[in-house]
Recover the amino acids of this structure.
């Protein structure tokens, strides 16, 4: 066990039981013309975390530690997309509609792919998820148990939507989560901070938070 400086108190990292979980770093959320922009968001601020996640990926790969990526996406026939999700709000383009990067949030389309700088490499796990939380209707939980992973270092977008949902799902399943604060971003800065505050309050009721610098120094 090694101790990572974190909020609300040091995270007891068990390196042999930890994985890096990179959530939904897809063009659809961080590039113009995708799902995130169709919801009315300025997606550009999210691009700032790409180099930070690239550094985390490089270190985990160099150390031979497991890496898991997720993509929020749906089958082309939308059978795994609830009407309540697709019909929400009044966006110009909905899930499955044609956009400049292909059909929004549809598996296999360019927009649903991971940004080039963070592309998975051979041996890394990819979880396609129809929900916000990465455990809902996916094999993630079974994969973690099979590989004896008990701790998740969490990065990706967006902090208060898919990242927070996933951390809460993980927490209820007995996994310990360390959120890397400069490796996650939201379209709403106040929501990012509120998420960090909510998760780490009450003695890490949802999990811990640290910076990439502090984490990487300990792992190195
Ligand atoms: N809209 C928003 O903030 N997020 C999502 O729809 N999905 C994820 O967070 N991945």
């Amino acid at each position: 066990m090694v101790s990572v400086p974190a909020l609300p108190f040091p995270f007891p990292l068990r390196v042999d039981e930890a994985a890096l979980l990179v959530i939904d770093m897809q063009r659809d959320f961080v590039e113009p013309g995708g799902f995130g922009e169709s919801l009315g968001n300025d997606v550009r601020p999210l691009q700032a975390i790409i180099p930070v996640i690239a550094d985390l990926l490089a270190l985990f790969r160099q150390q031979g530690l497991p890496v898991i990526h997720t993509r929020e996406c749906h089958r082309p026939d939308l059978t795994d997309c609830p009407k309540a999700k697709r019909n929400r709000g009044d966006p110009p383009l909905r899930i499955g509609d044609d956009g400049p990067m292909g059909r929004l949030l549809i598996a296999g389309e360019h927009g649903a792919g991971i940004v080039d700088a963070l592309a998975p490499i051979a041996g890394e796990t990819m979880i396609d998820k129809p929900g916000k939380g990465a455990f809902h209707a996916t094999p993630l939980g079974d994969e973690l148990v099979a590989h004896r992973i008990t701790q998740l270092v969490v990065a990706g977008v967006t902090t208060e939507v898919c990242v927070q949902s996933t951390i809460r799902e993980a927490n209820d399943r007995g996994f310990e989560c360390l959120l890397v604060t400069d490796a996650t971003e939201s379209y709403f800065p106040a929501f990012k901070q509120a998420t960090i505050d909510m998760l780490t309050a009450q003695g890490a009721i949802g999990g811990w938070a640290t910076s990439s610098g502090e984490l990487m120094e300990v792992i190195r």
In short: Helices lie at 27-30, 35-38, 50-62, 83-86, 140-146, 159-172, 189-204, 212-219. Residues 74 and 193 are 29 Å apart (CA to CA).
